Amino acid sequence: MSEKFFEIFEKKLEMLREKYLYRSIKDIDSKIGMEITIHGKKFINFASNDYLGLSQHPAVKETSIEAIKLFGIGSGASRLLGGGTVIHKKLEELLCAFKNSQASLILNSGYTANTSIIPSIAEENDIIFTDELNHASIIDGCRLSRAEKVIYKHGDIDDLNKLIKNSFCKGKKIVITDTVFSMDGDIAPISDIYELCKNEEALLYLDDAHGTGVLGQGFGALKHFNLNSDSFIIQMGTFSKALGSFGAFVCGSSTLIDWFTNSSRGFIFSTALPASIVASAYASLKIVMQDGSFVEKLWENTYKVIGIIKSLGLKTTNTQTPIIPIIFEDIKDAMHASRLLQDSNIYAPVIRPPTVKIPRIRLTVSAAHKPEEIEALEQALKRL
Ligand SMILES: *Cc1c(COP(=O)(O)O)cnc(C)c1O
C-alpha cells in the first residue's frame, strides 16, 4: 500500500519535470536586499517585491527589535483571545488614516486575507464577478465562499458591464479585482469599475497588494485614481511587498470590519502576528506616509527599466508598474534566458504555468536598486 502511495506522487513529480514545470526552493545566504548571494554566488536581485527597500531600512529594523524586547517573540494566541497588543491597535489606527477609512483589521498574510475575508462577504445567493487574472488567493477565497462565481475578461469593463447587467441575483453583487496584476504589471480600470459598482449597488473588493506603497504616491490604487473610500469599497493590502514586512490588512466601513472580526475564519482561528512584525509594518507605513522620496525613486527606476526593455525590443506586457515581465513563447526559451541572466549575476527567475499561461521572466524594480545595478541589468539583457 505505502509503495503504491508514493508511486502516485512520484509520477506526478516526473510529469512536472518532463514539462519543465518542476519547482525548487532557492535559499538566500545573505541579507535579502538588492544584492544577494545564493550558494555563495553574488547576484543583483530583480525578483523581490520589496519595492521601496524598506525590509532593510535601519529605523524599521530598530522598531522591530524594540518590540521584541518589549513583547517577546510569539504572540501566544489569536487576537480575540489576547494575542494582540497595543501595537496592533496603533497600526490599525494608522491604516485608517492611510486609507481614509472608518475601520481596519490586520490579517496574517495576503493569502489569509483573501481566503478569509471573501467567504465572509460572499454568501449563498450572491454573485462574485472576478477578473480572469486575479491572484490565486482570490481564486481560492472565491472557492471557499458559497457564492456563484462569474469570471470576466481581463481588465475588460465592457465584459464586466454586460455580465453584471445580464445576471439575475437574489443576493449581493460583488466585484473583485487586483489593482495591479501581480504577473503582468498592468493596472485594473478602477475608475470605470468604481462607477459601475456604484450604479449597480455592487460591493467592490480591491486587492491592493502591489498598489500599496507603489501607486498614488504610495497611498494605493484609490488615490492613484483620485477616488474616495466609499462604504461599498473594501480595500485589502499587504505589508509583505512595498512595506518590506509581513502580513496584510483590510480597510472598510466599521460595520464590515466588525463583521470580519466576528466571522473571518483566518482571523479567528489563527495566532496573531507577532508584535515585532506589526511594529515593523507600522514603521514602514509611517515612512511611506511621511516621506515621498522612496516612492519617487521607485518610479524613476521603473521608467528606466521599462525604457531599457522597450529599446532592446524585448517582448513585454502592457505593464505600467515596477512589475516588468519579459515574455517567451516557450518555457525552455524562458529558462535559457534566465540562466543567461544568472551568468551575468542577475537574479530573475522564470514564472511558469500554472501561475501564468504564458511563461515569462518577471523583473521587479525597487527604489533600492542603484544606477550601476540597473546598468548591469541592461548589459545582461543585451545578451538575450
Ligand atoms: C502576494 C499577493 C497576495 C498574497 O500576499 P502574501 O502577504 O504574500 O500572502 C495576495 N494578492 C496579491 C495580488 C498578491 O500579489
Walk me through the structure.
This protein has a seven-stranded mixed sheet, with helices on both faces. A three-stranded mixed sheet has the order 1-2-11. The chain contains 14 helices and 13 strands. It folds into two domains: 23-46 and 292-381, Aspartate Aminotransferase, domain 1, CATH 3.90.1150.10; 58-290, Type I PLP-dependent aspartate aminotransferase-like (Major domain) (Aspartate Aminotransferase, domain 2, 3-Layer(aba) Sandwich). The protein has helices at 2-18, 58-71, 86-99, 110-121, 136-144, 157-165, 190-200, 221-224, 254-263, 265-268, 275-290, 293-311, 331-343, 371-382, and strands spanning 35-38, 41-45, 103-107, 127-131, 148-152, 173-178, 203-207, 233-238, 248-252, 323-327, 346-347, 350-351, 360-364. The protein is globular. The model has no long low-confidence stretch (mean pLDDT 97). Bound molecules: pyridoxal-5'-phosphate. Residues 109-111, 114, 135, 137, 178, 182, 207, 209-210, 238, 240, 248 line the site of pyridoxal-5'-phosphate (PLP). Pyridoxal-5'-phosphate binds at residues 109-111, 114, 135, 137, 178, 182, 207, 209-210, 238, 240, 248.
